[in-house]
Structures are given as structure tokens and as C-alpha cells.
């Protein structure tokens, strides 16, 4: 009988300790509210970005994939205080995973530039001329010190002809920008400004590559495009890259825990 009583006593103590341990992880057990979650998204105005009045190249493109390592393939915003450790804001999250968010941003920006006849994320009735793959090398907050924070982003772009598996163009940017105030919202704001700038440089480089491809390709006399018009001296039918306020562009010349 004593053995049974002692066992029951220890069982009750163990259950009690388990409940206390569980409650320490649940603020509601002690009357405290859990911090509210905040959701963030990178965003910038396309109307301020350079673009062509009509498609410059008679070719089509599909964004085939946007991928990342598992460390960035989650909604929690990554912050790092050293090169060896990943930490996450449990109550500061992306509105969607970075690969999905960047897929929409890059698609919209590429469509707006008017470099291609069409840009989409799916292959439909016919194969596109080109496939684009994007790899997220990093998208994070860097905390150098309590007073010095940076937004950091690095993306790698790979262009492939749909008729082959060999990449014909790769481009990587790795950018870092200080934030105005040490809060996640300002990190996202800095990322938005940084991505806007870096995508313009990326698409400038892509434009140059497409121009090289077109120049080296055999010319079909039955196809007339904007570059043919310009070469013929037709000043009334140019397709110059412009901003919405009609400025000429140099586009063709150019790289935690809860608070």
C-alpha cells in the first residue's frame, strides 16, 4: 500500500510541474496577452521605374522558379547578429513567404519594363523563348550592434533558352542598406528601396544581353521591330526607355524575438 501511495504522490507532483511548465510558455495563464503579430511586405511604386512604351524585343519569357534555402523559406523575418546564427521574429512576419512575395514583385516589374512581348509564370500553349530562374541568396536584417542595423538582400538570376538547358546569362546582386530606425518596419522599407534600385540594374544588364543575342541572330527581313526603325533614322517611332514623367533614362548604358 505504501508503494502505491508514494507512486501516486510522485505522479501528482509530476503532473503539477508539467502544468506549471506549460503555463510559463503561455502568457494567458498569468493574465498577460500574447504580442500581436505584424505582417510586412516589400513594396514600391512601379510608376517611378523606367520602361519602354512598347515591347522592345519580339520574344517571350516565363519566370520558371524562385527558390531559396530553407532558412529563408518561411514567413518569420530573419535577423542575424553574427555570420553563424539565424534568428527569427516570431511576431514580425512576411505577409507571404519571400519566394512567393518576390515572384509577384519581379513578375510585375518585368512586365512593366516592356522588354518582352509577354512575361508570365506559367507555360501555356507554346514554349516561351526564355526561362528565368531566381535564387534568394539572402533576405534579412543584419544587427551589427544595438544602434546599427542594415537591410540585406542578395538575389541570383539565371536566364536559359527554353530550347536548351544551358544558361546563357547569370546576374547576382548583393546589397546592404542602413535603416533609418531600429525597427523591423524600417528594415522592410529599406529593402523595398533597395530592391527597386537593384532590379533596375538587373534589367539593364538583361537588356544588354538580349541586345547582344538579337545582334548576333540571323535577321528576318519580314520582321520589323523598334530597333530597326531607329537604325533607319525614323525619329518619330523610337522606343526609348522613359520614366512616367518623360525623363530620358540611362537604362541602356548600365549592376527576434518579440519586441
Explain this structure.
The longest helix has 33 residues, at 184-216. This protein starts with a helix and ends in a 28-residue tail after the last helix. The protein has helices at 2-24, 98-113, 184-216, 226-231, and strands spanning 38-40, 60-68, 76-80, 87-94, 118-120, 130-143, 149-161, 167-178. It is α/β, with parallel strands linked by helices and 259 residues long. The protein folds into two domains: 1-34; 38-253, 3-Layer(aba) Sandwich (Rossmann fold). Strands 1, 2, 3, 4, 5, 6, 7 and 8 form an eight-stranded mixed beta sheet that branches.
Task: Give me the secondary-structure topology.
Elements: H1 2-24, E1 38-40, E2 60-68, E3 76-80, E4 87-94, H2 98-113, E5 118-120, E6 130-143, E7 149-161, E8 167-178, H3 184-216, H4 226-231
Parallel strand pairs: 1-4, 2-5, 2-6, 3-6
Antiparallel strand pairs: 3-4, 6-7, 7-8
For this entry, give a set of tags:
2 domains; 259 residues; Rossmann fold; eight-stranded mixed beta sheet; disordered C terminus; elongated
Structural class given helices, strands, pairing? alpha/beta
Domains, number: 2
CATH architecture classification name of the largest domain: 3-Layer(aba) Sandwich
Distance between the termini: 53 Å
CATH class of the largest domain: Alpha Beta
Mean pLDDT: 81
Identify the CATH homologous superfamily of the largest domain: ABC-type transport auxiliary lipoprotein component
Helix and strand run: HEEEEHEEEEHH
Morphology: elongated
> How would a textbook summarize the main sheet?
8 strands, mixed
CATH topology call of the largest domain: Rossmann fold
Secondary structure: helix percent: 25-40%
Number of strands: 8
Strand content is 25-35%
- Rg, rounded, reads 26 Å
Instruction: List low-pLDDT spans.
Output: 6-26, 221-237, 245-259
Q: Enumerate how many helices there are, as a single number.
A: 4
Amino acid at each position: 500500500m505504501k508503494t502505491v501511495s508514494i507512486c501516486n504522490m510522485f505522479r501528482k507532483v509530476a503532473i503539477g510541474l508539467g502544468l506549471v511548465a506549460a503555463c510559463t510558455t503561455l502568457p494567458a495563464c498569468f493574465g498577460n496577452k500574447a504580442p500581436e503579430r505584424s505582417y510586412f511586405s516589400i513594396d514600391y511604386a512601379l510608376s517611378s521605374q523606367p520602361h519602354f512604351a512598347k515591347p522592345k524585343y519580339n520574344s517571350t519569357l516565363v519566370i520558371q522558379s524562385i527558390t531559396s534555402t530553407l532558412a529563408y523559406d518561411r514567413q518569420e523575418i530573419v535577423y542575424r547578429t553574427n555570420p553563424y546564427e539565424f534568428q527569427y521574429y516570431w511576431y514580425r512576419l512576411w505577409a507571404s513567404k519571400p519566394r512567393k512575395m518576390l515572384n509577384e514583385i519581379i513578375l510585375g516589374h518585368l512586365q512593366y519594363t516592356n522588354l518582352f512581348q509577354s512575361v508570365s509564370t506559367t507555360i501555356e500553349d507554346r514554349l516561351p523563348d526564355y526561362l528565368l530562374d531566381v535564387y534568394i541568396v539572402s533576405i534579412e536584417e543584419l544587427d551589427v550592434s544595438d544602434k546599427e542595423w542594415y537591410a540585406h538582400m542578395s538575389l541570383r538570376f539565371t536566364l536559359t533558352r527554353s530550347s536548351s538547358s544551358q544558361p546563357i546569362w547569370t546576374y547576382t546582386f548583393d546589397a546592404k542598406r542602413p535603416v533609418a530606425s531600429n525597427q523591423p518596419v524600417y528594415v522592410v522599407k529599406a529593402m523595398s528601396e533597395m530592391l527597386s534600385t537593384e532590379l533596375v540594374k538587373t534589367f539593364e544588364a538583361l537588356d544588354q544581353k538580349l541586345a547582344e543575342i538579337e545582334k548576333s541572330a540571323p535577321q528576318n527581313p519580314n520582321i520589323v521591330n523598334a530597333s530597326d526603325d531607329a537604325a533607319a533614322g525614323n525619329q518619330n517611332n523610337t522606343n526609348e526607355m522613359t520614366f512616367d514623367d518623360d525623363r530620358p533614362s540611362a537604362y541602356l548604358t548600365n549592376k527576434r524575438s518579440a519586441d
